[in-house]
Design goal:
2 copies of one chain form a homodimer. By secondary structure, chain A is α/β, with parallel strands linked by helices. Chain A has 12 helices and 15 strands. Chain A has an 8-stranded parallel beta sheet. A 5-stranded mixed beta sheet of chain A has the order 11-12-13-14-15, with helices on both faces. The first copy, chain A, is elongated and about 75 Å long.
């Protein structure tokens, strides 16, 4: 079990965030904010997929007006994504956003920040301070070598947090993102050392779905494995529902999300296997798709690790020549001829 | 850049392993070892995909004989995967395997181990001590609670390593695998603390390809990010070539592998985007598929992080309404109408 890093705990709308709450899955809409019907449809799709917080870009006054209407028509807590414009931040707070995201790279005027803090306090709105490696360099108008960027990001964060703390505002979520896997891990470890606010994790600009999964899993997953991270957003250049699927897989792998669907462990097979384990595993997966129970099922190809994995599984199949041994909670309870494996497995699954 | 954990360095056949060498990608054949033609075909496919070391199961005497013939017909260094039988280990060494893998869970007799060590020394064969969580429990014939397994694995490793060290054998690679992401990270951190031998990393029994990628990336990736790991094997219940693709993606994400193919950074898009960034990114990816240069290309949807990401990219496209700005090494050098983006991009790529 992961020991979460201790953070402050508070609410974002109806949702609790921090070390005492589960890690929150979030995403972002990818349609024109002013197309209210399309936004609401995407929020619904995301929520049904398991997304608990949805962020929306609010670049113009018209978008702020659309945001107000969207908030009126959904139960899902929303985050307004603010860049450049303090007015957008205040409009979003007044429209009822559960949280706003500010980028220290592009809202720098202290008076503006104080006005935003006061509005957020008055409306009980949470604020994410979202530092992006690419944004920081942008405003410096000069290239900063990679080794120096981490320090720069941490300093930007410190300066910004201080303004909020001096105004006694504590409902802060912090994030620092890079498109580089390693710098993303490093900066977040530093942020976690320096602050006790909940952290939002994400690898930014990760790419098309087939390219984004692995670097996102490494970056977000290795931080979570060390107890760092209270909400995650997987960035994929594709349908945002895919972001939720990947986020759930990351959390499930680390025991931070408990799916109602069975988990399937399969040995990779080798020259020892005496039946086609991969074919069998695919059949088992298909059979499991109808089951809505949080079970652990193992499909193993031989005796090297088969009985051992069976001990951790609710049901395990250890394949042998023309047959499979069926284990329940580590105990071998049946020997099944190859052609009967799936129906027999289903029978045992129904009885659990 | 990752600072690799300092290890001993030696050769496995023609390959150097350890902190002074690149991380080695390995896999395993999944066809009947006695089907020599099929094994050679799979070794060839794996090698062409980027696999540098191939492991083969050798459960019977007939497999040992097949292994000898396979070794005669391939240049790729091979690892014999040995379980239960000390004779198989010695046969594999004498057949010319570059390395053998022993499982302390199922070869326990000290005399047998010493005989194997002497043979390995005589033939300059490397040995991997591969502890598996599932194997250890198997031989104990009792269920060990998860919290205690890590200690048990470490103790098994210590006992085994001591036998090798007392016999002055140092060409050891160590591995400890679990099918649980978190325990896999923990046990490998411990092994890395206790020993200075090169480490082999893998998450065992990860599952079908779509299920295996994310937990493998988290487990292997987070260890590599901390400098731990000298050779990796991704386990997927599928074509072993997929294991190589995933391994390469993990290493590339961490700057440990330098692909000849362009890397594509894409912003996930949001309500700010004024053109279809995902469609554009897919077109760019297709155009890049013909390019064999180690370039970094960014496709970004707006000005928030676009110019910043452009600084790290060889070529970046920042999309705006009906057009895109093209950046080369961070400098904006052209404004391109939407319909001309791909041909213009290709022209610039050719000039690099």
């Amino acid at each position: 079990m992961i020991k979460r890093r201790k953070t402050r705990n508070f609410h974002i709308g109806p949702l609790k965030i921090g070390s005492e709450a589960p890690v929150i899955i979030q995403s972002m809409t990818k349609v024109d904010t002013q197309n209210i019907t399309a936004v609401l449809k995407q929020i619904k799709d995301l929520t049904q997929a398991g997304c608990e917080l949805v962020r929306i870009a609010v670049p113009t006054l018209k978008d702020s007006k659309a945001l107000r209407k969207i908030i009126e028509q959904t139960e899902t807590p929303l985050i307004a994504d603010i860049h450049f414009s303090p007015s957008r931040a205040i409009e979003a707070i007044e429209a009822g956003a559960a949280k706003i995201r500010l980028n220290p790279g592009n809202i720098k005027n202290k008076k503006d920040i104080l006005r935003i803090i006061d509005a957020a306090k008055a409306h009980n709105t949470a604020v994410r301070i979202g530092v992006n490696e690419a944004s920081i360099r942008d405003l410096k108008r000069q290239t900063v070598p990679p080794a120096k960027r981490i320090k720069l990001m941490l300093n930007e964060m410190k300066k910004y947090v201080r303004i909020f703390e001096n105004r006694s505002f504590a409902q802060l979520v912090l994030s620092a993102k890079s498109s580089d896997c390693l710098r993303n891990i490093k900066i977040n470890r530093l942020i976690a050392e320096h602050f006790d606010y909940p952290l939002h994790l994400g690898l930014t600009h990760a790419g098309l779905p087939e390219d984004a999964q692995i670097p996102s899993a490494i970056s977000i997953g290795s931080l979570l494995a060390d107890g760092i991270g209270d909400t995650i957003r997987v960035s994929v250049a594709g349908n945002p529902v895919m972001e939720i699927e990947i986020a759930k897989q990351i959390l499930t792998s680390l025991g931070l999300y408990h799916s109602a669907k069975p988990e399937l462990i399969v040995c990779p097979t080798c020259g020892r296997a005496q039946i086609d384990v991969i074919k069998l595993a695919k059949k088992v997966k298909k059979a499991l798709s109808k089951i809505e129970k949080p079970l652990r099922i193992a499909v193993m190809g031989c005796v090297v690790n088969g009985p051992g994995e069976a001990e951790d599984a609710d049901i395990a199949l250890c394949a042998a020549k023309n047959k499979a041994y069926l284990y329940k909670n580590g105990r071998r309870i049946a020997t099944i001829a190859e052609k009967n494996i799936i129906p027999e497995l289903l029978k045992h699954l129904e009885n659990i």
